[in-house]
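Supplementary Text 2. Reproducibility record for the structural model of the 469-residue chain.

All settings were left at their defaults, and a single model was retained for analysis rather than an ensemble. We include the record here because the model underlies the residue-level annotations in Supplementary Table 4.
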Amino acid sequence: MSLQSRLNKLGVNCTCPKCNSSLKVKNGKRKNGIQEYKCKECGTKFTAFTNTILEKTRWHWDIWVKVLEMTINNLSIKKMINILENDYGCTNINEKTVWLWRMKLIHSIATLPMPKLNGVIQVDETFIRESQKGSRELVSYINGEERTARYGRVSSKYGIMGTEFATVTTAIDSSGYSVCKVTGLGKLTNEMFIDLFSDYFNNPSYICSDGNLVYEKYCEIFNTPHYIKPSNYSDILLKNGYDDCKTVEDREKLMLKLYNNDLIDKITYKGKLNYIEFKNLKTNNKLSLARVNELHKDLKKFIYTDKTNVSTKYLEDYIGFFTYLKNWKVRFNRYPNSKKDIEQIFEEILTAKVNYTVNDIKTKELDLPKPSGKYMNILIEETKKVREITKNKYFKFNEEDGVVTFNKREYLLDIPRYKLYNLCKEYNIKRFRKLAIWSIVTLLLKQSDIDIKIYQLLEKDRYLRNNDE
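Retained model, structure tokens:
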């Protein structure tokens, strides 16, 4: 069956691509023998190939399906060329041609719809180092600093809250379906998360996350129960002697104490819960971050190992491609492994009418939200201050610090009550337990060295090491 016949059978361009009218007439054939149509409503001329990735193609159906199969199976460019030349008789192809071909398919799959998520949804960010792989001229996204080439593992200067990392925000439900989005360079904001994810959440029973305030704000707005587990949960247990407890009873007493002091995981927007109520809800609803953590492992393996890193300007396409295949596996309980599977995916691409041209790929530029120059200057300045005060030259802000705008009042208003009380004790503030939180914060901000205390709070309970972030 010819490509044109297949497209006609799939109903691709059965209506006018401009006005969507079904009133059309045949308008002769083009030089390549393809049937042309003319819309009776608006006069637009088109073919079955218009606005699809097959427009102007010289390859037949089986070759396209084979290239898609090899792309999904992560074959190298050289292996793809070898198969196309020896098994399909393709001529005049090179590495650039096949790479562009593959990028067309990856982009097309990445634009396909993602699923709605239900039930218990786990959300978290992971971070991919900003990369300009393949670029001849490197662009710096930090004012006043040159962007030099990186060879091997080189630590960032200011961490994941700045422009040295792309933030990939992920969500996965209890069935295993997931949504992964590149939300920008640097920190995730409330607006970004709501804009990109709210349409994919179908009345979740719980949102599970780490201590990032973005998720707490979302749950507040949409009145959704929120399970929060701090990233340093294991460190907190270790520091407080959990491993030294001899009996189950001793462990439960310790967990009760930690829970009452707001030091471990908790559930918000579910009313006031005592420890037993919280524990039962957590167990019965299987609240954790295990699924999203596993998703991050798979995602990073895909980017750093399977694809040997990718340029950040193409990261959205690769993340969308990865997500589609993960959801395919959930839907069919396996990855696509037959020609029928691959053809089904290819048909989905064609009916979606995604047209991604070679020129689109070649002229692609980084088009992601980025922190402002002012924000980056403040981040750099504040990072240097914390490093100097804490004597930790590796300190970098992270997404759970609660530092959103570097506004000290906002930071103090967002931290747990027990931390405020501890500061009051250090400053010998009287009768602080009878005061409203706003009043406590106002008194604390009057202290001459409150900056130092805040920096010490940020540094406390962290594993401080030099790593790739």
